[in-house]
From TrEMBL:
Key word Repeat present: yes
Domain CBS: start-end pairs: 88-152
Family to which the UniProt record says this protein belongs: Belongs to the 5'-AMP-activated protein kinase gamma subunit family.
InterPro entries the record matches: AMPK_gamma/SDS23_families, CBS_dom, CBS_dom_sf
Organism: Hibiscus trionum (Flower of an hour)
Keyword hit for Cell inner membrane: no
SMART domains to which the protein is assigned, alphabetical: CBS
Protein name (Swiss-Prot/TrEMBL): Homolog of yeast sucrose nonfermenting 4
Keywords: CBS domain, Repeat
Length: 223
């Protein structure tokens, strides 16, 4: 069965666009203008969650107090995936890997956990790097997988092959603190290229959780 990619029109709401991206699990939704008689269509823009979030942040830039939830620390709201505390159950435990883990183990975990990225941590669970599906794409573009044995190459070695390609402003890992407000986190994620934030402990950089763009929209839209 052939499935059409989702599209949106210029008069659709931001909520409509965000919901189409989330439900279709796509990165981009084209904004299309069609003539009344349907004789021609015009591509106006390409909408992404980061662009939608940027519009929301711009709207609340000087009036975030009008929506109290924006001033709440992220640790106080059901947002993202967190490392469970001792004795606490977690429906979706956060996946973590050591840098010496094999590339094959990382690929398997990405699929099994159904996540787009995995924080790479040291023996103290302090953040070192992050391995994402985009890193797989980078290796595939260079056909590097043809020369790689997945169970012999470590995550550290694999990341060195795509160190520069998937960095944002010179950083691969975008971080935040559990005490940061929802508004601050939204502003960080609104930057093009920042698809997720790793929540770390101040000072030690011990990983406490992770928040993605889709997590924020699922929370805001109640889906």
């Amino acid at each position: 069965m052939f499935l059409m990619n989702p599209i949106a029109g210029p008069y659709d709401t931001l909520m409509d666009v965000a919901l189409r991206i989330l439900k279709s699990k796509v990165a981009v939704v084209p904004i299309i203008h069609s003539s009344q008689d349907g004789s021609f269509t015009q591509l106006l823009n390409l909408a992404t969650l980061s662009e939608v979030l940027k519009c929301i942040c711009r709207h609340f830039k000087h009036s975030s107090s009008s929506l109290p939830i924006l001033q709440q620390p992220i640790c106080s709201i059901p947002l993202g995936t967190w490392v469970p505390k001792l004795g606490e159950s977690n429906g979706q435990p956060l996946a973590l890997l050591r840098p010496n883990a094999s590339l094959g183990a990382a690929l398997s975990l990405l699929i099994q956990a159904d996540v787009s990225s995995i924080p790479i941590v040291d023996e103290n669970d302090s953040l070192l790097d992050i391995y994402s599906r985009s890193d797989i794409t980078t290796l595939a573009k260079d056909r590097a997988y043809a020369q790689i044995r997945l169970d012999e190459m470590s995550i550290h070695q694999a990341l060195q092959l795509c160190q520069d390609a998937n960095s944002f402003n010179g950083q691969r890992c975008q971080m935040c603190l559990r005490s940061d407000t929802l508004h601050k986190v939204m502003e960080q994620l609104a930057n093009a290229g920042a698809r997720r934030l790793v929540i770390v402990e101040a000072g030690s950089k011990r990983v406490e959780g992770i928040i993605s763009l889709s997590d924020v929209f699922k929370f805001l839209l109640g889906v």
